[in-house]
Each structure stands twice: as C-alpha cells, then as structure tokens.
C-alpha cells in the first residue's frame, strides 16, 4: 500500500498467443497424442512378420508410449520434469511415432505429422497458458 492507502498490483503480462490460437493448440496437442498412439499401432501391425509379432508390436508400442507419457508427460505424472526436459521428451515421443509412421510406408503422412508436431511444440513453448507450462516443477 502506498501513503494514500491504495494497493499497488503488478500488471499481468499479456499472453503473446491469442486465446483462439491457445485453445486450438491445446486441442491439437490432445489430437496429436491420440494420433501418436494410432501411428504406433499401425506401424506394429504393418512391420510384424507374423500375426504374433504384429499383435505384440501393434499393441505393445502404444502401451509403452502410454506408460512413458503417464510417468513423465501427463498433467498428473509421477515424475515431475522441468519445462525444457518435459518439452524435449514430449516432442521426441510424438516425433518417434511419426518415424514409425514413415517406417510403415506412409512417408507423406509422416512428414506432415512431424511438421504439425513441431508447430504445436513451438506454440506451446511460447504460450505461458499452455497446459504443459502450468505444471509444478520439482
């Protein structure tokens, strides 16, 4: 309070990302996570030489992604990573699914997918209101 009894508050910094873009990018992040699971399942069922291996890869690869995501990337993750390593891990996991899609024979889709992942990651890094930036650091 100043000598006149008025409170001084700090100005709230303005988000450089417009609200509609923020909302669209958050929705896109969720859709990318689902697409990553689908890409890994597609890859597993395509590359396995026999039915048993196709089932193991087609189900196992998405399950591994889910476990790693739940441990490190989810909002309620057991292991709390600082923002930079979290962004790197999240982006690497999603790009890994794009690589799997490429290896499964869908090269154009994989390149587009990787580009969308990169754009989403960049916007999330710039957006202080992004869900990934709202997590508590250790």
Gyration radius over CA: 19 Å
| Tally of contiguous helical segments | 4
- The percent range for helix content is 55-70%
- Overall tally of structural domains: 1
Model regions low in confidence, pLDDT < 50 over at least 5 residues: none
Shape: elongated
Tell me about the largest β-sheet: none
Structure description:
The chain is 67% helix and 0% strand. The chain has one domain. It has 4 helices and no strands. It is elongated, with a radius of gyration of 19 Å. With 138 residues, the protein is mainly alpha-helical. Helix 1 packs across helix 3 (83-103), helix 1 packs antiparallel against helix 4 (107-126) and helix 2 packs antiparallel against helix 3 (83-103). The two termini are 33 Å apart. The mean pLDDT is 85.
Topology of this structure?
Layout: H1 19-47, H2 51-73, H3 83-103, H4 107-126
What is the compact description of this entry?
The protein is mainly alpha-helical and about 140 residues long.
List its traits:
single chain, 138 residues, mainly alpha
């Amino acid at each position: 309070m100043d000598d006149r009894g008025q409170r001084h508050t700090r100005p709230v910094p303005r988000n450089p990302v417009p609200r509609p873009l923020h909302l669209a990018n958050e929705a896109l992040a969720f859709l990318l996570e689902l697409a990553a699971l689908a890409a890994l399942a597609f890859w597993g069922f395509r590359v396995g030489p026999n039915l048993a291996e196709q089932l193991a890869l087609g189900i196992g690869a998405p399950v591994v992604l889910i476990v790693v995501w739940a441990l490190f990337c989810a909002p309620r993750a057991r292991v709390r990573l600082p923002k930079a390593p979290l962004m790197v891990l999240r982006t690497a996991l999603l790009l890994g699914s794009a690589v799997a899609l490429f290896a499964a024979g869908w090269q154009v889709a994989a390149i587009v997918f990787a580009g969308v992942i990169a754009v989403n990651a960049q916007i999330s890094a710039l957006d202080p209101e992004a869900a990934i930036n709202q997590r508590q650091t250790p």
